[in-house]
Amino acid sequence: MSSPWGKIQKPEIPVSFAEIMSEDVARNLQNKENELHRKFLDIGKLDEAGPPILYDTQIDENIPDEVLKAISNDSIESDAAIAQMLQMQFDKEYDDTLKRKEQKLNGTSKVSISLENYKRAPHNFDFESDSEPEEIEDIQDRKDWDRFDTLQKVIDSIPGCGYKVQQNGTLITKHDLVNNGRKNACKLLSFPPEFQTGDGETFDLKLSNKVYNSLKKHSKKEQVRRYRIDTKKEDRATAEFGMDEYTRLLIYKMVNGGLLDSVNGVISIGKEAVIIHVDSNTDFPDVQEPLPKECVLKVFKTTLAEFKRRDQYIKDDHRFKDKIGKKTSKKNINVWVEKEMANLLRLQRVGIKCPKVITVKKHILLMSFIGEKNRPAPKLKDAIMSDADYSIAYEEVKC
């Protein structure tokens, strides 16, 4: 459209506020891109002061200060080490989240829930370099497992002179009542496992010397009592099978001394003794006559459960009545073995057939074996004999 007054300018098209904001945002983003690109080019150039700085705290604001400090260290050149540090920081943040969750769940409740097993990172973190091992402390060495470990370190800190001056200027000696009481509490850990000491870790336990000595004395008494009960159980085996520890030792001495070659097994068990078949050493020198090959050991029971009135059979015997007195059953049994041996020798003198006595050791009587090929002769009640055989046997033993 023409006009005599001059050229008419076209009116500007109005721009919306949203378009203006979008242009400003695009312009700012482009400026930041240019700035970052320029800094990246500047960082790539070597500086006379040292190696280039690869990271800037203003650029990476989300990276923790500990990791940035470790990254800026010249000795760390491995990407794996940097990744481990970042992972440790992530684990620490995860553990902090668990800790807050644990506090929220527990609240003021008396029963608390622990999420310690679900944590990923240890309590302490070391971001030092691997090139300085003297600065890195082991986490396990740094940690006190319980209160007693801490107390033991305090007690051991007192030097050999017997006293120590603390930081506040006070003098503490090895005879201090508080430390001495705590030291006695630590000594409770050396008691036997069966001694119930309780949980002294949850509070500051202190024991005086008098209390500790009483507990120690009681612990030893209980331990002796337990061993005494076990000893009685072992002695009870003599009443059942006649083979307690002392009896086995005596038989071992017979074998080791050359009197016996082997111990075969039990033939019979009675209320007063156990009969064991053995093989003797026919070439044993310390005997007047050659020993029979097959012999028996008659082991008398020292702990009696069935035959308790043996003294009635000995007290009227003029040969042994002076040997019976206020003795233990183990000593009285030796007298009973002597009486048994004397009766067998008496039978031999009058010509009655009986086992031949070889020797006696405490409550063990070694005799000849009646039988052959490890098979004992049958007892009179089990023997199959005719009337004539019974008459002959009666005439042999008739007085």
From TrEMBL:
<keyword id="KW-0418">Kinase</keyword>
<keyword id="KW-0547">Nucleotide-binding</keyword>
<dbReference type="GO" id="GO:0004674">
    <property type="term" value="F:protein serine/threonine kinase activity"/>
</dbReference>
<keyword id="KW-0723">Serine/threonine-protein kinase</keyword>
<keyword id="KW-0067">ATP-binding</keyword>
<dbReference type="InterPro" id="IPR018934">
    <property type="entry name" value="RIO_dom"/>
</dbReference>
<dbReference type="InterPro" id="IPR000687">
    <property type="entry name" value="RIO_kinase"/>
</dbReference>
<feature type="domain" description="RIO kinase">
    <location>
        <begin position="232"/>
        <end position="399"/>
    </location>
</feature>
<dbReference type="GO" id="GO:0005524">
    <property type="term" value="F:ATP binding"/>
</dbReference>
<protein>
    <recommendedName>
        <fullName>non-specific serine/threonine protein kinase</fullName>
        <ecNumber>2.7.11.1</ecNumber>
    </recommendedName>
</protein>
<dbReference type="InterPro" id="IPR051272">
    <property type="entry name" value="RIO-type_Ser/Thr_kinase"/>
</dbReference>
<dbReference type="Pfam" id="PF01163">
    <property type="entry name" value="RIO1"/>
</dbReference>
<keyword id="KW-0808">Transferase</keyword>
